Amino acid sequence: MEMDKRTRIVFIAIAVVIVILLAFWWYLSSTRPVPMGTPAFAPSGQLTPGFPKGLVLDSLARVSQSYSINYSTSTNQYTVSFNSSSSVADIYNEYLAYLPANGWPITNKVTEYKNSRGLYAENASSVVSVAIVVQGSGSQVTVSYGTGVAGTATPQFAHLTVQQGTLVVGFPRKLVVDPSAKILSSSDNPDPASGTHTTAAIYQSSESVSTLYNQYLGLFSGASWQIMTKTNTSALATIFAENSSTKEQINVQIQGEAKGQTNIIVSSKVPNS
Questions:
Q1: Cα gap 93→215, rounded to integer Å
Q2: What is the DSSP-derived secondary structure letter of residue 226?
Q3: Fewer C-beta within 10 Å: the chain N or C terminus?
Q4: β-strands 40-41, 126-135: how paired?
Q5: CA 115 → CA 81, 110, 163, 203, distances in Å?
Q6: Rounded CA gap, 96 and 33, in Å?
Q7: What is the DSSP letter of 224?
């Protein structure tokens, strides 16, 4: 139960030109080796159930992606990315006014970069992070809403880059098994409480779920790797693997989307050196 209290929710901010990387955390059941914290994507253009509709301030916004992550019975994350014709500055100012006026005092701001803005807000029961980046003549906005983590998670704007496709330092490049994949997001989450460090990436591939699944199986075929759990269907595949030598744990989710695209989320958790 103490681990549940320490479990932190993490927010992934997806952008096309500049990626604001927030912490990403996955939680594993203490009774069996089943990977927890795997995202469940909403149908294209829709908000995931549980995400407060009021947090999408642009009524004309086009939702590009939305998903939820359940970490425990009380700790959940709901995220949406949408495109807006408004400028980064205009959207930032709207959230700057809206969040404290609606019960989320702002605890962190990112304003020092020309083409992006970030906000983190928190109240007694929930947290909200907002990442806004330039996209063409408008903006791309990623908003994450989390419950059950207030007061336990330190807001981290871990990395900022102007180059699309960047992975955080320390993320194993080999875990992106498609060399032509489009990197959507990457994050870095040190957790001193548990003595571990997690890096993660979300990327998009034109390969099928089955092809990518088999590539990951091959990656984990070495003698020191043990696949703890795996599932494979035409629309969704998951793998949880552990290295007996290094104690690295890898969590993979592969989800097929419309128009021949596949979304992959992969996390690597290692003990602190």
A1: 45
A2: E
A3: C
A4: unpaired
A5: 17, 11, 12, 22
A6: 41
A7: T
